[in-house]
Design brief:
The protein is α/β, with parallel strands linked by helices. It contains twelve helices and 15 strands. The two termini are 33 Å apart.
């Protein structure tokens, strides 16, 4: 977390649900909506823009992410960097002002490896807030909504060569002044949640206008905060619980598909299951936080996306843990996330340590050599792979990601699909890189292997688990 703060500060000075199964529109009983849980399944991956997006060795590091069985990568798109000037047509995804080539490259590289992107929108340009810093809100939130629409449109799957992105989040750690200011007014009154509310609405509404099928999480809250105006050099902040409660009081109600949270432990030496003092939010009290979100927002079972988590390691981080203990904690954290019916996404921050940065929680060291946690994480991620869904025994169709095929196959091209060794059927490739697969009902098999092949002979494999609801998946 401190690392991304440092990187974003440098950039500013120089200038982040899972795969779920749905049936075709018109069916009365979907197998599972995008915001529904699949037992034992998560989108698991990393946030690491330095290594996966900006590094000269990003392709190699993305291969390592695939080796770790990552199914999602979070990236932060800084509005002030992507739109250094006011665009002539801000909702045009290809307005010449927009600087998104590095995001394009990441999207394509991730798609080639069968990995989804999760995009976090953050950072106000000077032209949109009267010359203030990127952590100040826009003067007119229509500008932010237009940028969010353009971004979601660009990555809607409707434009050849630009992969579909269906996961977005609104801002980064808006409960910290470093990312959203001010948190308190001159009289000491809380204003951070009220400033965030129109930001969240603008990003949500813009993304949905650009791609109605996309999912948008709000929050992206840091695990801690003071809840009091500070004196001296300490930045103002809200605890995530108080920030969320005050956000729920804003009118009109904030629309969202999920809440994104960074449940870091208070220190790297604190185990994932160790108690965390409320109103801080860690893994140990994440369910309590979820129940509170339900109450405050008058919702049922608000989904939670864990979009940052990690433990730093010795010796480069003197307050870190041993690499062996990091592996133990990574396994425990993933297990806790998988046990929660609310959690859809789990992202480890970061994949590879970067020389000269203060954050050393990578599963790879600075030279790219794996720490013990790399193998542990990869094994757990393989077991939780949301590309291999859990469906009811009587499911008639499954919707599966085929992003690797979409990298070299135009939308609507035929894909030959064989399910459980049956004769192949031909289905069209969706513009979002997904396929809908018919299933035969009435069988007794609990696991089906799916082979999907494009016209070039490239094949991918998925596994469907079928459940009657009485047996937990392995």
């Amino acid at each position: 977390m401190r690392w991304v703060l440092a990187v974003l500060a440098v950039v500013a000075a120089g200038a982040a649900a899972a795969v779920y199964i749905v049936l075709p529109r018109g069916q009365e009983t979907p197998v599972a909506l995008p915001d529904d849980a699949m037992p034992g399944r998560l989108l698991v991956g990393f946030q690491d823009d330095a290594s996966l997006r900006w590094s000269d060795h990003r392709a190699e590091t993305l291969d390592r992410a695939r080796e770790a069985n990552a199914t999602v990568i979070r990236t932060i798109v800084s509005w002030h960097i992507a739109a250094p000037e006011r665009p002539a047509n801000p909702v045009d995804p290809f307005d010449p002002v927009y600087r998104l080539e590095d995001v394009d490259d990441l999207a394509r590289n991730a798609q080639q490896r069968g990995t989804e992107l999760l995009i976090t929108i953050w950072g106000t340009p000077e032209w949109a807030n009267g010359g203030e810093g990127p952590n100040r809100p826009p003067a007119d939130h229509v500008d932010l909504q237009a940028f969010s629409q353009a971004l979601a449109d660009r990555y809607s799957g409707r434009h050849a060569g630009y992969p579909a992105v269906r996961l977005f989040t609104a801002w980064n750690e808006p409960n910290l002044e470093q990312f959203l200011a001010p948190q308190f007014d001159e009289e000491g009154g809380s204003v951070g949640p009220a400033l965030y509310a129109p930001i969240a609405r603008a990003i949500h509404d813009g993304v949905k206008a650009g791609n109605p099928d996309a999912l948008v999480a709000v929050g992206e809250t840091s695990p801690r905060g003071r809840d009091l105006p500070s004196t001296g050099n300490v930045q103002d902040s809200h605890s995530p619980a108080r920030f969320a409660r005050l956000l729920a009081e804003q009118k009109p109600a904030i629309p969202f598909d999920a809440w994104a949270q960074h449940p870091y432990p208070p220190r790297s030496t604190v185990a994932p299951a160790d108690s965390v003092r409320w109103p801080r939010v860690g893994l140990a009290n994440l369910e309590h936080f979820g129940d509170s979100l339900d109450l405050w927002f008058d919702r049922d079972e608000v989904p939670i996306w864990i979009t940052e988590y990690g433990h730093e390691t010795l010796p480069l981080e003197p307050l870190g843990v041993s690499p062996k203990l990091q592996a133990t904690y990574a396994e425990e954290a993933l297990a806790m996330a998988a046990e929660s019916p609310r959690v859809r996404v789990f992202l480890w921050f970061i994949l590879r340590d970067t020389p000269g940065t203060p954050w050393q929680s990578g599963l790879l060291d600075e030279n790219g050599s794996p720490k013990p946690a790399f193998a542990v994480f990869a094994a757990a991620a393989a077991e939780l792979d949301a590309r291999n869904p859990v469906l009811p025994l009587d499911a008639e169709r499954a919707r599966l990601p085929a992003l690797e095929l979409a990298y070299s196959t135009p939308a609507a091209d035929p894909i030959d699909v064989a399910v459980g060794g049956a004769e192949p059927v031909t289905v069209p490739l969706g513009s979002d890189g997904w396929i809908e697969v018919p299933l035969e009902t009435g069988g007794s098999r609990r696991e089906l292997r799916v082979e999907a092949t494009n016209p070039h002979g490239q094949a991918i494999y998925r596994t469907l688990q079928l459940s009657d609801g009485t047996v937990e998946p392995d």
